[in-house]
From TrEMBL:
Topological relation to the membrane, as annotated: Multi-pass membrane protein
Domain Major facilitator superfamily (MFS) profile stretches: 236-421
Superkingdom field: Bacteria
Main location: membrane
Species of origin: Cytobacillus eiseniae
Keyword Transmembrane: yes
Record-linked InterPro entries: Atg22-like (IPR024671), ATG22/LtaA_families (IPR050495), MFS_dom (IPR020846), MFS_trans_sf (IPR036259)
Name this protein carries in UniProt: UMF1 family MFS transporter
Amino acid sequence: MKKMSKPERSWVFYDWANSAYSIVIVTAIFPLYFKSAAAEAGIASATSTAYWGYANSIATLIVSILAPLLGTIADFRGFKKRFFTFFASLGIIFTLLLAVVPMEQWLILLGCFVLTSIGFAGANIFYDAFLVDVTSEDRMNRISANGFALGYIGSTIPFVISIGIIIMAQQEIISLSVGVASQIAFVITALWWGFFTMPMLKNVEQKYYVERVPNPVATSFKKLFVTLKNIKAYRALFLFLLAYFFYIDGVHTIFTMATAYGSDLGIGSTTLLIVLFVTQIIAAPFTVLFGKLGQKFTEKRIIMVGILIYIGICVYAYFMKSAIDFWVLAMLVGTVQGGVQALSRSYFAKLVPKESSNEFFGFYNIFGKFAAIAGPVLVGATAQITGNTNSGVFSLVILFVIGGILLLRVPDHNRLTVNEG
């Protein structure tokens, strides 16, 4: 197997760079820091949770609205790199500011988080679209999988360092408050993200593009309108996006609500963090394995295998009773989560017209973002009606079944082209 080229390595390392943000800022440390800041300001727990939900929704909505238009503009020569740099810089700078804003200014903290989220998600649109520029079609599965695998490993390093500092502050081993220790974690995350973004900025360039026109914004609006108007010409691509909407919703929901399942089984917060860490480690090699299998048997088949495994996970979750069951569930998720995401990205990159990759990855981002809505609602409603969290997890089978059926209907061919005449 040919070694990765410099552009491929540089592209892959951005996953290593930004994955720390996902686990430190989105999942583990900042949510607790914000809750603590709001509590000190006299904000009720339910109210601060509501504000946290609003902040996430606002960031998602802004990126989802802008994604297709910005993606269409970025298809013009020279714009893709500029947009990537802007959004990555936005995310990094405001992650640093999370450590500077005083805790009593909890509303400003929340505003900074919204801007970091927009920066993170916006940069990912153009990062994903750069996949067509850095490698050939026959290597996309491997490179996409390597990115996710490195991301899982890379995210654990600053996470473990940050958790170590916070625990030492809690145990009074070091003379820092937990708040200051958390702020140090935000600085570590921002510096990690910024430093390992450098290879991407230096070595990755836009190879496929549309030549610039005098008024790119107006032209982009027209191009976007034509794409939506001629959606039948892209039937296979949008059919895949619809399938992706359903099954990726299930994937994200199982991961984001894992701590709730564990808490309901009586698992402590420290153990939950350890489970999360181990899951990340397991995900790395299995993501690479999925990439190799996708190259041998086609992405569509291996994504279907992943969907079937997720259906099995949901069934297993229905019968969960103990902490050991939760460990088994988490390990199963670790074997399949990264692989399904990596192959979905590379499969989509093969379907889209290369010179319009940014525009279509804008749609990819929208479907992925809005997919984060239905799953948690389905789990919450089912759990509330039945009074059983396990039933809530089991209900996700619906999403995987629908996603799988739609994926089977996506035509098998290497490159999607617009129908002529």
